[in-house]
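[Structure tokenization] protein backbone as discrete codes

[Encoding] learned vocabulary of local backbone shapes

[Begin record] amino acids and matching fold tokens:

___
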Amino acid sequence: MKGKKTIFFLLLLTAGIKLGGQNTYKAIIKDKSNSELIVGAVAQLKGTTNGVSSDKKGEISLNNIPDSSQVIIISMVGYLPFNDTVLFPLNEQRTILLEPESKEMDEVIVEGTRSNKSIDDIPTRTEVLNEEIDEASTMDPSKVAHLLTHSTGIQVQQTSATSNMANVRIQGLDGRYTQILKDGFPNYGGFSGSLSIMQIPPLDLKQVEYIKGSASTLYGAGAISGLINLVSKEADKEEILLHLNASHVGAFDVNAFLSRKINKVGFTLLAQRNTHRYFDADKDGFTDLPQLTKYNFNPKLFFYFNSRNKLILGGTFTNELREGGDTHLLDRKPTDSLHFYKERNNINRITTQLKFESKLSDRNTFSVRNSFNIYRRSLGITPSFISGQYNFAGNQLSSFSEIAFSNKTKENVFITGLNFYSDDFKEQKLQSNVLRNEEYQTVGWFANYTFNLVKKVAIESGIRADYVMDKQTYVLPRLSALFKWTKKLTTRIGGGMGYRNASIFNQEAELLGYKNIMPIDKKTTTAEQSYGGNADIGFKTPLGAHCFLNINQMFFYTYLDHPLILVDTNGTSGIYHFVNANGYTQSYGGETFFKFGFYDFVLFVGYTYTHASNIFNGKETELQLTPMHSLKGDLLYALPKKWRIGLDYEYKSGQILSNGYRTRDYWTYGAVVEYTWKHFTFFVNVENFTNFRQTNYESLKSVPYNTPQFTQVWAPLDGIVVNGGFKIRL
């Protein structure tokens, strides 16, 4: 009995010693860069599940830690993990300074605003896509159109029911008011504007930048509703990518991207061949997707002479044949009175790019940029059997040259420069008695200054003066402000002015194939001018080590004075002119952005309210093909280098058509699955898997020729689309 008591006593003594060896780790967690308290940081005893989060005071109290040397792992979204090695017992409170993560996560550098500052520090409201590029190229590697739909307030509007042409609409305004840049070069307007987003591939892009609202101050004419800057990859890492894609509706894409740097010389190369058989989803005898053959070749050279001087030389070579219309004719059968409608686009583009940048000192930089764009397009359309085929063709030669100087300190950036932009279209004499040649030459001066007014208020001011030769001068001021109330809560407010030169190259003329469209009368027609502004409030915060929340509410307003409209000169002559409307167009509304991350899941929701209308001759009419309510979002699961699974959806409310009919509202849904094994990534993507189609509710045939030529597209035409393939990365 004595022995049993002795053993029991020893057990109690051992337990008491063990309990006595349980310690508490106390610490206060701060941001290393500004000493602000960090709420939600996680401290975990290494090798165990014992962990706790920092409270509102940034304090951590972690219990049940044994004696001896232990490692406490402290982590937080947006910060580098910190390992604190401590010898217990410990009686003091620790102060831990977490270091913000690298620029790749925390500092997305925006190029489109010219200040080249972090997106968190730019007063101009800018949205950036980068991680979404790879996902969008999986869905459609042949064109950038699908990628652009990932942003709230952006609508890709199909403009032809048979050839699948489309443009980008921002905040409800027509696509001609959106300026598209490639690496800051404005080469996608005029005659090429209606096909621009159908020809730019996404595979060599590293990020996409959106500036919504009047932005002509930055790069000149055209950015009335907004600006999209497509930024290419540089030769900063070795990459070999082969991408093969095919769909059940007839697409087959072969894409290759190569990036390499050898000593002080680097190069990138994108080569593509995209083909598509015509596809008739509703079996009405007309194409819902055109027959297509496209080749694209984008080489670029980088010369890194030293740490201060860099030269970039690049080019784009594109050839495309796009045919849509009556499938009877696409099967190479003869034309007759029942089978005559066909649209044929033959396109060739050659673009050069040169950019030289020299850092004169740690603060001062001098840059020179130049590009030439040669665009040839022939359009043949057969609206009726009696009239036969009408052909419109021409060559567009445009150039952009700029010299700029910038001075950059830690907080302030000043940039000024001169540029010269020319756009010269020469129509090929075919069937028209009047040549619709257009020529604009613009000399511009600009200045942009970004500075901190006080510690938590930053200002970005800009001004541009453009002289359009033989016409007039446009002075365009711009002002934006950023208020950093806290590290998590910010407000941006800004506004500016814009303009667009009068041109026949608008959607209305495209529908007619430019038949009977008269040239712009520069004596009576003036440029379209605008002003607008937006304001937003944003809140983002980590929720522990594995979650984050990002919410943004933005409001916008754009006023467009005397926009161009197409009118029949005498009412019944069938001869059309573009004239300035007696009135204005306005668009106002709001965008709500919500993003929530939880471990490997990310949920995105974006809602847009748009009220867009024309007020002509004192009467207000709703802008056509502009949904008042739209909702888009996705749920993504991503396990790095293993799985990526995404579900997306989009809702559009009813839209007004030219005949006064309001369409029904509708939902579309999609899904994508990717699996990565070593150097291989296999993917399957399903678009519109509920098979919602416009032709389920109406025929595409319209008056006066009983063809789809003048049908307005308000919903998908192709229905469900399944594509799949694989990528090889080396």
Residues 6-20 have pLDDT under 50 and may be disordered. Residues 464 and 635 are 42 Å apart (CA to CA). The chain is about 5% helix and 55% strand.
